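Narrative of activities, Objective 1.

The group set out to show that a structural description can be obtained from nothing but a protein's sequence at a throughput compatible with the screening campaign. Below is one input-output pair from the validation batch, recorded exactly as produced.
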Amino acid sequence: MKLLHSSPDVAVIGAGPVGCVTALTYAQQGAKVLLLEAYSQNVKCFAGEWLHPPGVQILQQVGIDLNLKRITYPCGKGFVIFPEDGTTPIQLDYPDGEVGLSCEHSTILGILREAAASHDNIQLLCDTKVTRIDGQKITFEQRNQGVTHTALVNTIVGADGRASTARKILGIPNQSIPISFMAGILLKDVELPFEGFGHVVLGSVGPVLMYRVGAELVRVCLDVPRYFSRDPATLWKAYNSVIPKTLQPAFKQALSRDEVAWAVNLFCSRVQYGRTGLALVGDATGYFHPITATGMTIGFLDSDCLVRSQRFEDYQQERTFRTYVPELLAITLYEVFTKQDESATALRHAIYRLWRSDPMECRHTMQLLSGRETKLLSFSRSFLKGVLLAMAEVVQNNVRQQKWLQIVRDLVSFNQWLYIPIKLALLRAKKLLKIYFNNSKITTKILDIYSITQNEQPRN
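Output recorded for this entry:
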């Protein structure tokens, strides 16, 4: 066992994938790093298992190539969308030959912890709980030894997930919004229709995401509405018709054995990044629905940005603006894929047509999905193109049927799709104003305007 660094430069709270990448990135720059993990061992859990190409590149920058270590099966080629109407699946490849990664969470975590533990500049302490942070002094208890330490460091990083201790110490409230449940099921010895791709299957009560995580293992993720039963027999009845026939026997068997790992899909806007000397990365900053599978990738990009930023303010500003589009994309796609009203159906079909007919639109979609493209104008251009196509289809259908009054009602229903980005922008603006201009008169006035737009009571 290494001796405890007498004068570490950085303390990273949480040795999950994002915490390990943060520690490795700092260590690569010559910093001495304390990496503190509350649990004693690598616990298997249903968490991040897909990494987009920008995330893979971050790993390569710190000397880890997961594609060459323990990964012997096809993966990370892109996504295939299975429309709810049973038409031909739509293949979306990562552009320019880029490759992502899908792998069991425990495997990714094991490789990263092994790399961190073996690095000369990193001290990994497991079964270690952070109990106090005063300025830059961090106090932690090694529970397996019954020993408490304090360390004075230049930088503390909270990479400890949704239940972040660092976030609590900063006094940031947990204001997450529940969206749905996610049921994770492992299928053994089955073949996917498009090996190497993530499969997004529509047509049930919620989207289904499937991808390979091992040479003999496929992960099936069922998005289950909050109101829906979690009984295995009910899940089989609801989802079996959209599961590819070759996977149905294994799917049925796994459900009959109740081999289901459950998680809650939550939304918490990513506007809280900590303070100077105590930064948050990954899910500690916020999170959204995993429909775009960007959580782990965004966390790695947080780490990279933090280490290369000269000031905390630079890090906070860059990540606040660069994560708005991924957040907006996840919210919008989930709404488009799950709502069943006429405007949502028309919008889905319009997006399908764009993907089938325009290779450049497919390329652009994958750049947005992977986090490679984060400009709001870029997202807005593609999204508005889909909305306009959908509106044109609705108008044409009503004209053919001579439903003149229905045209107006249907066009009004498209307001919801313009409202989503506006609402999210206002939500972010509200939180950012609280952070940057806390309790000022101008902030109070702006928040009153926001409250009125949300049908809330103005502040006293």
